[in-house]
Amino acid sequence: MLPKTASHAKWICFIALMLTVLMWIEQENDSKATNNDINVGKRVFTQIPAAGGKALETSVKPVQEVRPASVAQQTAAQGQRSRNYKLFPHTSQDLSKMKAVEVVATGYYAGRESTGKSPGHPEYGVTYSGMKVTRDATAFSTIAADPAIFPIGTVLYIPGYGYGIVADTGSAIKGRRIDLYFETKDQVYKEWGKKTLNVFVVRKGDGKINEAMWSQLKNEILF
Fold first, then answer.
1. What is d(CA 25, CA 67) in angstroms, rounded to the nearest whole number?
2. Is pTM beyond 0.70 here?
3. CA–CA distance, 114 with 144 (Å, rounded to integer)
4. DSSP string, 24-72
5. What pLDDT does 9 receive?
6. Contact (Cβ atoms closer than 8 angstroms) between residue 63 and residue 44
7. Which residues fall within 8 angstroms of residue 218, CB to CB, at 6 or more apart?
8. Rounded (5°) CA angle 49-51-57
9. What are 60-77's pLDDT values in tens digits?
10. Where are the alpha helices (H) located in the chain, listed in sequence order?
11. Which residues of the chain, if any, have pLDDT below 50?
């Protein structure tokens, strides 16, 4: 059994500890009571002192919870618009189910060596269909073909080049031969040259192509 002095000291320490805890709880309650900003659901109300000592509640615009898209979601969304189709077609395209045609494919650009026209000529960069030449490996590019084989508006998938829409013709482009548009002469030689390969008919054209049809084909086939 402990001596009386030790027993008294033990009780004194216990009482002091309890008083400390009670004082801390009271301070916490006072701090919350004096806080002027009260969160109610998603709306914030601010207490403003008014005459007579009463508080008026003034609503502030709702605090909207913003959830940023994950990196994976952002990458996937960007990928749908920026995928390069030179080596692989769109994931929805099954080449094994498409008609394959062996062709000789060459490259051309809008300059004099390919078209006989120079910048400043009214028809410079304008295809037989009236469309402007374009090279876009993430969507469609303009190509030239023999309309008897590939009618204007035909969409082809050309491995190593991407998707091409027949929008142009040429005096030397006869039979199973196609001409692929590039932006510069150097690109024609460095990126392509002349190749014999199988191209795949994604959609056969009906003899015409324009800006509206081009956009529609892009949405239907790629997006």
1. 36
2. no
3. 12
4. HHHHHHHHHHT--EEEETTEEEEEEE-GGG-EEEEEE-------PPPHH
5. 61
6. yes
7. 139, 140
8. 40
9. 444 455 455 555 545 444
10. 4-33, 71-82, 112-115, 185-187, 211-221
11. 1-2, 33-63, 66, 73, 75-77
Report strand pairing: 177-181 vs 99-108.
parallel
Contact 137, 220 (CB under 8 A): no
Tokens of 173: 């482009």
pLDDT for the residue numbered 162: 98
**Residue 136, number of CB atoms within 10 A of its CB:** 13
Would you state the pLDDT for residue 51? 47
Distance of CA 78 to the CA centre of its chain: 2
Instruction: Provide the β-strand partners of residue 157.
Output: 163, 200
Amino acid at 165: I
Structure tokens at 37: 């900003």
The DSSP 8-state label assigned to residue 132 in this structure reads B
Q: In this structure, what is the dihedral angle of CA atoms 196, 145, 135, 114, given to the nearest 10 degrees?
A: 90
> What φ, ψ does residue 63 adopt, rounded to 5°?
-90, 110
